[in-house]
Amino acid sequence: MNNINSSLCQHFKLNCVPFLERSKTSFEYKQFNDNLELLSSAFMTRQIVCITGASGTGKSSLIFYAVNQLEPSQFRIAGIELSNPNKKALYKTLAIKVGLKPAYNADDIKLQLINFFDEENAQGKFNTVIIDEAHTLSISLFDELRSFYDEGLNFSLVFSGLPPLKNQLNLAVNQPLKQRIFVFLDCCALSLSETKEYILSQLNVVGAKVPVFDEQCFPFLHSVTSGVPRRINQLCYGGLLAALKRRETIVSEYILRNVHENLNYQV
To answer: Which residues form the ORC1/DEAH AAA+ ATPase domain (predicted)?
Structure first.
């Protein structure tokens, strides 16, 4: 832990710094719990799943917590994050992820993967391919992945991306793929009450014994972050740093307003 974060912990009497990393246990609320249950079941039923949501609304966290529930000896998860990949790059990356030495041609790698998943299934192991940044896929690659899934029917396929992913799947040319998707999950922003509960949960995880944020902070935080968890994390952490600099023991709305003016959100 670096000096500034050590100082934060000492100043606010915390075990570690909140809002920077995912905790071992998720923040539970209705939408998240519903999505987690549906995604978890898809891992063992060889379905196609589509997860969409604006940047920072928790798509990666949803996948992270769902995967962490799985028994490694029974499940293999291969996650791919390639922006606008071509066919060979996608299959080659996937082959390397599962421990294969990829062939030269894309179609040969595809066959390697299908055979590999067959062997894994014969041993009672479930495989899932997760395609992140799926909104960057080309129409031809969407159809290629449909073909890949159809030829094997021996793995689950998860698409995760920004809201335009839904628009792409609604195109007539992508209907053959969309008709194979049984689970559509939306990751939405938090409500005002959920925003407050989320912040308090983050503080509770790191051992906060007394209030760290003034009560008036919560409506302001929700208003300027639109309830997006990543933005909440950024602003809350900035508020802690600003309060430390001012030697304040509680973060006020005034401090957060000053931080917000200089914070450029990653949208």
So the answer is: 45-169
Helix intervals (H) in 98-135: 106-122
List the one residue out of 89, 119, 113 whose CA is nearest residue 101: 113
182 phi/psi in degrees, rounded to 5: -100, -20
In this structure, whether the domain defined by 3-19+190-261 belongs to CATH 3.30.420 is answered with no
Give the type of residue at 264. Answer: N
Closest residue by Cα to residue 46 from 184, 150, 186, 160: 150
Q: State the Cα–Cα distance between residues 88 and 197, nearest whole angstrom.
A: 45
**Phi, psi dihedral angles at 263 (to 5 degrees):** -100, 125
Residues 6+ apart with CB under 8 A from 85: 93, 136, 137, 141
- For residue 159, which phi and psi values (nearest 5 degrees)? -100, 130
- 30-187 matches 3-19+190-261 in CATH topology: no
Of 261 and 192, which is predicted with more confidence?
A: 192
Beta bridge partners of 161: 52
CB 39 within 8 A of CB 63: yes
Range 30-187: architecture per CATH:
3-Layer(aba) Sandwich (3.40)
For 201-248, write each residue's pLDDT tens digit. Answer: 999 999 999 999 999 999 999 999 999 999 999 999 999 999 999 999
Question: What's the whole-number average pLDDT of the chain?
Answer: 93
Q: Average pLDDT, stretch 44-59?
A: 95
The strand pairing partners of 76, in sequence order, are 127
Query: In the chain, where are the structural domains located?
Result: 3-19+190-261, 30-187
Calculate mean pLDDT across residues 166-194. Answer: 96
Q: Which residues of 4-14 are buried (b: 16+ CB within 10 A; e: fewer)?
A: ebeebbeebeb
